[in-house]
Write a structure and sequence with these properties.
It contains 5 helices and 2 strands. By secondary structure, the chain is mostly helical. A two-stranded antiparallel sheet has the order 1-2. Bound molecules: zinc ion. Zinc ion binds next to helix 2.
């Protein structure tokens, strides 16, 4: 008859059990960390590029910004935020006259007022349609 299976008759296991973290696993972890660091470096490089581009754009805009005019005792940067209220008739009178005087002579604010007027008109049209 055959003998029952007995594991103790098997040759002893002479290889050591694998450590929890094998060399391959360790290498993979190191590689992951290195990849992440490379990614962060690349990301920060991209961020720096974006900042540089933004700064360049800012400089470009500052350089190409139309120069400030002073008509009617008021400057373009003071007129611009008042244009919408002027069109809406919400600007108090001494101020409204100064803004109108400025816009009438200013090569920047004249077209800006026209563009705003058109924009508000088209917005009003679409609003009344709904
Ligand atoms: Zn102006």
């Amino acid at each position: 008859m055959s003998t029952p299976f007995d594991p103790s008759h098997l040759p002893p296991v002479d290889w050591e059990p694998a450590p929890p973290v094998t060399g391959g696993e360790l290498a993979r972890r190191v590689r992951t960390r290195r990849t992440r660091r490379r990614f962060l470096k690349a990301a920060s490089g991209v961020a720096a590029g974006v900042v540089a581009a933004g700064g360049g754009l800012w400089v470009w805009r500052a350089a190409t910004r139309p120069r400030e005019y002073d008509y009617g005792g008021i400057t373009c940067s003071e007129v611009e935020p008042r244009l919408e209220r002027l069109l809406a008739g919400q600007l108090p009178e001494p101020e409204a006259t100064r803004v109108r005087t400025h816009v009438a002579q200013c090569p920047n604010c004249g077209p800006a007022l026209e563009a705003l007027r058109r924009k508000l008109a088209s917005r009003g049209d679409t609003a009344s349609d709904g």
